[in-house]
Amino acid sequence: MADISKKSAKILVFSTEKISDPAIDMAGLLKLHYPPTVYTITIPCSSGIKPSWIMYAYEKGFDGVFIAADGSDCVFGESCTEKTGALVGKTHILMQEKQIEPARLRMAAMCSVCSESFVKQIKSFNEYLLKSSNTEK
Amino acid sequence: MDKRLGVYICHCGGNISDYVDVEKVREAIENDGCVLMSKTTQFACSDSNQKEMVLDIQEQNLSGIVVASCSPKLHLNTFRQVSERADLNKYNYVHANIREQASWAHSDDKKGATEKTILLVKAAIAKARLAESLTPNKIMAINAVAVIGGGVAGLKAAISLSDKNTQVVLIEREPFIGGRVGQWGEMFTTNQTGNELISSLYAQLVTRKNVQIYTNSEVVSYSGSIGDFSLKIETTPRYISQDCDAKELQKAMDVCPVVVPDPFTFGITNRKAIYGFAASQYPKQATIDDAACTHCGACEKVSKNIDLSLQKEMVELHVGSVLMATGFDPYTPENGEFGYAENESVITLPQFKKLIDNSESKLIYKGKEIKNIAYIYCVGSRQGDEGNSYCSRYCCTSTIHSAIIAKKKFKNIHNFHFNRGIRTYGKQEVLYAESLKLGDLYLQATDDSPAEVYSENGRTWVKVNDILTESKEMQVEVDLVVLVTGMVPRSDKKVSTLFKLPKGRDRFLNEIHMKLRPVETAIDGITIAGTCQSPKNVAESVNSSLSAATKAFSYISKGELETEPIVVEIDAVKCTWCNECSTACPFDAITQGLDGDRKIAVVNTTVCKGCGMCTPVCPTDAIDLVTFSSKEIMNMIDALTEQI
Amino acid sequence: MSSTKNSVSYDALVVGAGIAGGEAALNLAVNGFKVLLVEKDLSVGGNMIKLSKVFPTLDCSACITTPKVSEISRHPNITIFTGSEASNIRRVADNHFVANITRQPRYVRVEDCTACQLCEKACPVSVRDQYQFGLIGRKAAYIPFSIASPKAAAIDIENCTLCGACERACPTNCIDFTQEVEHLEMQFKTVILATGFEMFDANRIPRYGFGKYKNVLTSLQMEREIAPTRPFNTILRPSDGKVPDKIAYVLCVGSRDASVGNPICSQICCMYSIKQSQLLMGALPMADVTIYYINIRAFGKGFEDFYQQAKGMGVNFVKGKVGSISETENGNLMLRYEDINEGIVKEEEHDMVILSVGVLPNEGTTSLFSEEQLMLDPYRFVHQTDGLANPSHTSIDGVFVAGTATGPMDIPDAILSAGSASSEAISYLLK
Fold this sequence. Notes:
The structure holds 3 protein chains of 3 kinds.
Chain A lengths: L10 E6 L3 H10 L8 E6 L7 H10 L3 E6 L9 H19 L7 E5 L5 H22 L1
Parallel strand pairs in A: 1-2, 1-3, 3-4
Helix pairs in contact in A: 1-4, 2-3
Chain B lengths: L4 E6 L11 H8 L5 E7 L5 H13 L4 E6 L2 H14 L7 E5 L1 H5 L6 H21 L6 E4 L3 E5 L3 H12 L3 E5 L22 H13 L4 E4 L2 E9 L2 E8 L10 H10 L3 E3 L8 E3 L1 E2 L11 E2 L9 H5 L10 E7 L1 E4 L3 E3 L15 E3 H10 L5 E2 L2 E2 L2 E8 L15 H15 L4 E6 L9 H9 L3 E4 L7 E5 L2 E8 L5 E7 L1 E6 L1 E3 L4 H5 L27 E3 L9 H19 L3 E4 L4 E3 L9 H5 L5 E6 L2 E6 L19 E3 L4 H11 L4
Parallel strand pairs in B: 1-2, 1-3, 3-4, 6-7, 6-16, 7-8, 16-29, 18-27, 21-22, 21-27, 22-23
Antiparallel strand pairs in B: 5-30, 9-10, 10-15, 11-12, 13-14, 17-28, 19-20, 24-25, 25-26, 31-34, 32-33
Helix pairs in contact in B: 1-5, 2-3, 5-16, 6-7, 6-14, 10-11, 11-12
Chain C lengths: L6 E9 L3 H12 L4 E4 L14 E2 L4 E2 H14 L3 E4 L2 E10 L2 E8 L14 H5 L3 E3 L8 E3 L1 E2 L11 E2 L9 H5 L12 E12 L3 E3 L16 E3 H8 L19 E8 L15 H15 L4 E6 L9 H11 L2 E12 L5 E7 L4 E7 L1 E6 L1 E3 L37 E3 L9 H20 L1
Parallel strand pairs in C: 1-2, 1-12, 2-5, 12-22, 14-20, 15-16, 15-20, 16-17
Antiparallel strand pairs in C: 3-4, 6-7, 7-12, 8-9, 10-11, 13-21, 17-18, 18-19
Helix pairs in contact in C: 1-2, 1-8, 5-6, 6-7
């Protein structure tokens, strides 16, 4: 679990090549700062994330996983939202089995220019993770 | 055999190295398992470094490369080409984004940025270790382009593509082509009228064998992708055959009981529900306004060429690329915004332009002769965070040009320009100079106290604290107030939504990169042209349209295209054919097949788009997306959680 | 002097290898046409490659230009002649132009040069570096600039003393003083003019003191001071090397000014000044930056937001015409200006002044042609014969124009204009 002395939680972001990644890039371009312990793995579509990857991230020590979902902007079709929702549901069950707080997985739809929203979400997620890890101690 | 990797870490001339200790990053990874060589470089993308990379790959027999630099949106292809030039399959190159997602995002925390960069580069190395050579799929590219929108941008693109021996399908939502330009009178710089310009473009287009024009038509669905888009086009009937001439139409118009404001004149005049044959309205075939028509049948009785029983028609077409030229809407002011819709002396710039065109010796509006005119600039533009923050670009020049025309065409016109800083950029400046010479008055309000329109007893005043005269309060009584309304994105977003085209912060359609790829969109094979991308004047729209046409032509001119070999793979041993993946696939790329006598899932790799939607649903974890396999992702997670 | 006469033919001649010419050449090349790209400078990339960052995204200019330049340099359908000029272009028939191409000797065999810079070290002659706008010096044997393409040495023969030091230092023996001017006659089917622009010479307005007061710089010089490949690696004022903390920008220098013969607006100066002011605020957080303007022309996509962002960062915008500049004893500068908001003449002291110089036509463009005359507009830019419907058409059939050769424009517009000219050229070639 997160170290009490940590300033920022370790967060894995799954972002998508065409939609949310440009938003995260633009956050950098605009120098909208967020904690440097946020790491991004880019994939084509948020509905292609396997629950086992998320579980593996917790196992290896990530405090939180954030899915920057394509939402209705997905280039692969409308079913993306529903399917991303389904895999989050599936993961929550796996998390429950391992007694991992379900709030350590967060999902939000990001458009290609949602830089400010990304930074806001990540900051609040970070605060949440820090707070919950501190109360656990 | 393990990979032999070369790793390049870019300074980006300080953009990265000012915030990230790139040498420390290099030291942190130089001993990673298969890293044979690692370097830092001033500009990884520079020609000299590219040459050096080619030499390194060849001399050191590298089997994979990692470049840690800016966003892959900029240079993925640059480095893929480097590796191909060194005869290394381009899929052995992996990119790490350490500028947008490290040095810039964490410019406030150099230590944090450096540590993050180390892990990002390690993750890229982890991915590169597993990278394999892949062969792109080749697909046929149909030598045809659909141009959506028949305004000046769409018409020019259609002509240009037709010149290049490409089949063109021009699809216009309205019954007539010509768009906004068709509605204008004289235009700066050539003083050509919109009618002249559109007539000449239509004449060039209509005779061509390789151009099909669909008016009153909309794209209602699409499938496929670059090289072969399948479009369904729905055409609303005109209800009037081509045999109906102007005389016959007049008879029908006389009996038509429905009168509506004419959108062609921005509502300053009315028309019947049946109409046509106006200047700059092409094709020269009358039509019935489906939304306004009550189907009373009066027109059918006077003309044998009218048939109200006609139904909508649907055709399906295949094209290799789609060019969007859907244009803009003029901003519609809120009720009461500078007196709009409340004071009848207040009109918009497009309405004023039509009023000038429609007036002969005297400028008359609502029965009153107009002498003193106030122009209020930036209505609907530069509204700050609350509204449209952008400048609409064309309006300063267009207004001054119209004001000059009014002054020259009619007697005793006095123009008062209530502006927020005149933006007649470039050669348009001479128009501003001419207007000043003609005695037009310019009054500039401060940003925090804009001009005000008020009326009393049927008289109208405009009031302003003019900064050009030491912030004295000035007020002018005028006969007409022209609101200089800017450009806004089309309110009808059906087509852009259908194609899922990303929009920018200004809500116009967004290009991939303003300078590197200004007419391309996130959807391969779909380009954008003209004012659907941002406000532009006519010449700028034409330049953007011809650029988009060139791009579209280069997609299809070779007859075939390479597509990414990023598709899913089925592990035949693990697969038990439960049908889950096939249900999840939005493209019907997975079907049931046989492995010996065992039923398994089979992927059609030319149909698979590589989204990976099928991968999480597999109960036996038998599907992986190439280059995004579980092994690759988990190894990256391993790398990101290493201790440094 | 001997001259060789070759006769080679290409589909298109593109004159000028700045961003517009390069883009146009690339558009033709990817569609299978053979292009000769002629550039009088020693490197392709034009003005853009020398910029720091570009508005309104603050992308680093080199990051955008260099890959494009390398794509152009490497394309098998594009032949590049740097240090070369076209002349005597004439249309002999439809789809048939003949041009004389003059290649100046570089005195270096580019294919053998490794850009090791040993010749630079060995050369005893120092002159002002035109690529750094005279801010620093360079040698007579030199690599034009760090991201030049081709990245190879050249000998500035005007200033060379023929001492032979560079020849002795060169490890690959690529220096060759026997090279001579080459005169070629070549055939083309179409011509694209991308001859670009010249900057207004600030010396022409003596009351601003450029050339007389050391701390009055032009915007291009400042561009170099803030570029990633900058000469001093920091921002300083030339008179005493002090880091400036009160900087002024004077807009419309040589633009919108009939008295210097240039009544039009240069279209880019407002935005590049705003860009520089943002970069300065970033580099020197304690500095005051004031922009003296007449109208701010933030008209393009994302420009108005960029202008508001500069205001938000604390850049001071003063609506005022600067009448004159004088120097104080410590090298500071006194600006006398008319404050338009208050209607009075004021004075303000700054320790560095940047003149935002305007865009002028490249006067060399007309002399490219013989026989048929290339028409110019009243401001001496290439005349667009059908400015609305066919912006890249010129007075000569089969000759198209791209980028700032037609008038001032920013980079996105220049690239779109190049796309437009290449579209017309392709259509012309397929006719």
